Amino acid sequence: xxxxxxxxxxxxxxxxxxxxxxxxxxxxxxxxxxxxxxxxxxxxxxxxxxxxxxxxxxxxxxxxxxxxxxxxxxxxxxxxxxxxxxxxxxxxxxxxxxxxxxxxxxxxxxxxxxxxxxxxxxxxxxxxxxxxxxxxxxxxxxxxxxxxxxxxxxxxxxxxxxxxxxxxxxxxxxxxxxxxxxxxxxxxxxxxxxxxxxxxxxxxxxxxxxxxxxxxxxxxxxxxxxxxxxxxxxxxxxxxxxxxxxxxxxxxxxxxxxxxxxxxxxxxxxxxxxxxxxxxxxxxxxxxxxxxxxxxxxxxxxxxxxxxxxxxxxxxxxxxxxxxxxxxxxxxxxxxxxxxxxxxxxxxxx
Length: 350
Prior knowledge:
single chain, alpha+beta, Pdz3 Domain, four-stranded antiparallel sheet, 10 strands
């Protein structure tokens, strides 16, 4: 069932992405030759006006093929003939729709959850390092740690995950007042309670309310954004490599393991939707990277082309940019193939 849900989820996110391009193109009077779900031979197709709508047999990807997208054409309704700002909107629309979908899924998960972990401390171990004089106390609400805002517990968890033992500044809310605690020692230790090595902090649980949902939507979204940026930073600095990357197969495996770790059907559905929000926001951000073949690469190409044409007052042939994106697509597919085989090898190795 997890595999079925994952296929449906990926298909939905691809559909939403391509729908963003499609709607923006139609509103900009750009001719769409084909709007297709999946790849390969068509199992269903229907011509409506200028556009062929198709569902294809290989459940991977999808596309919105616009007239003159990668080459010059005399059609006045081609992509290349549209104003530059309209082309920019069309290119960004796909990722925008994925991002909005991620935010909506976050709102659904928050609304359906019975409660959430707050940043208010319900217990500070007396013999912990943070309980020193001038340190943290039970009842404190942690507002920031090491200069990073902690509006939700996930912010604190992400920050402390990479935090080395040492002294850090903490801003808390105590008895209705905002206090800055300087040089609080954060040292992990085993307290003998079966919870492993930790700082000795226990956070409270709060019931979900309409106000709490509204208050948490943006912090939860920001947390997802920070996670993607952190992952990219680790990738480009060499802290992570291809072995740490996951494709659809790896994501399904992680989703399956996480879903199976919870007992109730309700919790499994919410966990799956939470994964969906993470994937949607990841797709939105990754697709806007300035890499050929991705929408971000096309945006960069559009801006550079407009700048060059403005300076030289000469129209550039769109086919050359098409060649660059074609090479980028081949390299991207090669990377995807490597990650796919790596994920499959990991599964069989287990």
